[in-house]
Write a structure and sequence with these properties.
Blueprint lengths: L4 H22 L21 E7 L9 E6 L5 E4 L4 H16 L16 H11 L6 H7 L2
Antiparallel strand pairs: 1-2, 2-3
Length: about 140
């Protein structure tokens, strides 16, 4: 029995159709363990140079937060559920929405002074003539 040319063409077309359909459907399937950051840190110390955030995708079910350190150009993955990761994601989204530079998110606010300086600032903010010691001695 000789294979008919018409039957061979139909079989080849059907095979090609099945292969293309399988390839197209497999691109959107979640494959666990394909994230850029398999391990994350909750926080980081030091100056930050660059911030990159990748949203959830077909290959990774988590938001990926990657920060580059200034001192040694090391890329560090941050936990998106940690407070600092959430803060960077919020800042990133705000910067993208407003069209600002993302590097503004990398500048950290520093606390100024210690306990003694804060006490001095509080005393300077009180109105003059209303000293605690003076008020307590007047009432006695």
């Amino acid at each position: 029995m000789k294979p008919n040319l018409h039957v061979v063409c139909q079989f080849a077309f059907l095979s090609l159709y099945c292969i293309l359909t399988a390839v197209r459907e497999s691109e959107g399937v979640y494959v666990p363990g394909r994230c850029l950051c398999p391990q994350t840190q909750s926080g980081i110390r030091g100056q930050l140079k660059e911030l990159t955030i990748y949203p959830k995708s077909a290959t990774c079910s988590n938001v990926t937060v990657i920060v580059t350190l200034t001192r040694n150009n090391t890329a560090v993955c941050l936990d998106p559920k940690a407070p600092f990761g959430k803060q960077l994601i919020r800042c990133w989204n705000r910067a993208m929405k407003m069209g600002r530079d993302v590097k503004l998110c990398l500048k950290r606010r520093r606390r100024r002074g210690g306990r003694r300086q804060r006490q001095q600032q509080r005393q300077q903010q009180r109105p003059r003539g209303h000293n605690r010691r003076a008020l307590s001695s007047d009432s006695q």
